Write a sequence for this structure.
């Protein structure tokens, strides 16, 4: 079965956000998931920040459907990326709701990175195991935070993530065939595509922001996607 079934990520993300935007989120939960205008982001009105819910559920739906129909095996690597992303989604949502401390957020990021490394993904161009683990941890946590900081303009983080996913998907079916990387790239990219119509609207302000629950998932999943792709292009290793 073709990995094209990951297209489910698009309608799932879009439907989740469409439903949430039309639901009565005026209670305590909805009131907390709102970004108020500040100098950190260019917006002039209070905006819902639960876009990460749609992104993560779309991403997860694409992966799980691909596994269910046999488009990809339920490998430890694939489940490790999904598990790490789930941890960061939960931590990001908690941060959006209750403002976690920097130490708590960093702990969740290292925990998610540990899940990915325990699943078998690593920096393959490095033969020294200790060095490879250290580089991978810095990479995973660093890119996660980079996307978190990047999410300060409508459409910026999701568009860049979608472009990167398109590249990884193309590479996974041409130069370096890799079914896991293909499913990850398509699922994440299409989840971003489902989110963008609500965030990047011509002539109108964003209807929803992705929040930390979305930006951390994007950065982490992209960093893990890089590890799941071929790193041995040059044919050399670092010892």
């Amino acid at each position: 079965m073709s990995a094209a079934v990951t297209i489910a990520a698009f309608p799932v993300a879009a439907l989740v956000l469409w439903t949430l935007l039309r639901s009565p989120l005026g209670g305590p939960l909805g009131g907390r998931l709102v970004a108020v205008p500040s100098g950190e982001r260019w917006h002039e009105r209070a905006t819902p920040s639960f876009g990460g819910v749609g992104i993560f559920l779309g991403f997860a739906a694409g992966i799980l459907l691909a596994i269910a129909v046999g488009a990809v095996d339920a490998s430890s690597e694939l489940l490790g990326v999904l598990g790490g992303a789930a941890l960061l989604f939960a931590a990001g949502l908690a941060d959006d709701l209750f403002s976690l401390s920097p130490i708590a957020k960093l702990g969740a990021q290292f925990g998610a990175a540990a899940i990915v490394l325990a699943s078998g993904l690593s920096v393959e161009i490095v033969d020294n195991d200790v060095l490879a683990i250290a580089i991978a941890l810095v990479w995973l946590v660093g890119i996660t935070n980079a996307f978190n900081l990047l999410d300060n303009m409508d459409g910026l983080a999701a568009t860049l993530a979608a472009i990167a996913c398109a590249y990884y998907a193309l590479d996974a079916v041409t130069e370096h065939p890799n079914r896991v990387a293909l499913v990850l790239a398509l699922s994440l990219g299409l989840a971003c595509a489902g989110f963008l119509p609500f965030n990047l609207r011509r002539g109108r302000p964003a209807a929803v922001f992705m929040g930390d629950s979305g930006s951390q998932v994007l950065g982490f999943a992209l960093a893990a996607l890089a590890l799941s792709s071929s790193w041995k292009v040059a044919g050399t290793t670092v010892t």
